[in-house]
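User: Please run a holo structure prediction.
Assistant: Happy to. Please share the sequence and the ligand.
User: Here you go; the ligand is adenosine monophosphate.
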Amino acid sequence: MRAKPDVDLTIANYRRASAPKVVIAGRPGAGKGTQGTRLAQRLNVQYLSTGDLLRHEIAVESALGNAVNRLVAAGRLVPTGLILAIVETNLGEGGYVLDGVPRTLAQAEALFDQETLAPTVAIEIVVPAHVALARLTERGRGDDAPIVAGERLATYETETVPAVDWLERRGLLLRVDGHQSPDVVEQNVLRSLEYALQRCDESSVSNAQAIMPVLDNSACLVAGSEYARE
Ligand code: AMP
């Protein structure tokens, strides 16, 4: 369990948010795609996965796809400039669920440099490394082969954990236990978000309802939001 951030900007950010801008982090295999897609549907905002988009570009052999093919196949990170260009080009106005960005401290800082892109909340789906590896092996995607999966997991520790820690220091991070069934994780994601919204205004749930009308008032307990990374 980590120390609480000094300044909790989550509250202020939610108050300002006309539509939630959510970034989803987590080890490869944590379930970001599954949860990100579901959450975007719930919140009625755009879902963007840079990994999905890159895989599509590679499949259709576009210039972008050809440029990144070897990096993605090797489980290495694509240059930040390209990722930011993808995000800027593909994210519309309003809220979003962004899966797979930020992957580095530089990406985290760059997201916040642009007011329209700045996330209002970050969710880390936490699974132990051995669970992530087992899931990747089972999934069997091209970049999930054991050596590449190992590389991607190592990259998460060295490159992405500092970005997640940075988000935590800004008071934006909710942690959710991802080592459960997708439905349970989804509930915990929603409850964690709602809990953060509750803290916006203890006396009223209208705030929460404005942003998350899909939730009823009964699900106000914190559930699974404080899982430490292994
Ligand atoms: P994912 O599906 O999110 O695991 O991403 C698959 C691969 O796409 C990663 O292993 C990277 O090679 C590349 N990629 C996706 N998002 C990013 C990012 N934000 N920064 C750098 N590379 C990325």
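Residues 198 and 205 are 6 Å apart (CA to CA).
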